[in-house]
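Just scan my protein:

——
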Amino acid sequence: MREQFSIPIVGTVPAIKPAAEISQTKHIGLLATKGTVKRPYVNDLIHQFASHCVVERLGSTKLVEIAEHKIQGKSVDLIALKNELSPWTSIENLDTICLGCTHFPLIKDEIQICLPQVKNFMDPGAAIAKRLQFLLDKLDIALKLEVKNQVFCTQDLENNHQLERALALWGFEGISSLK
């Protein structure tokens, strides 16, 4: 994607290090997309920062769909969510989960319902915002948008009125396509 756009692209990296530090049981989970849980850099993060922990990995595209339905104002299907998280429901000492996808903090409360043993959720949002602010400062880019909060998508969603209404509930005032 970085090759296709002239603007900086900020990605997310699973918060393995802080998860390993905060976990009391040293049994943590990485909840991410199927691709992310298999990436070599994730193996490196686990080796470097969590070699003293048991790290469970659960890759899911279904959770992305569930989160996107919630963004659109639809209710979360707790049965589907519980089914997707079923490999972890019986792991009693799993106390910390890295939310390794930007979608997953949107359904954190529902994940907590399905996995009540989990006490800590590592949300990538603050680190992403910090990195974005660093890049904006470094590149001396001032945000001059006419709307306060806006969603930019790589596919054309500008005329999706249902999504616009749902995003308004989250404080967003517009959708623009990057194409």
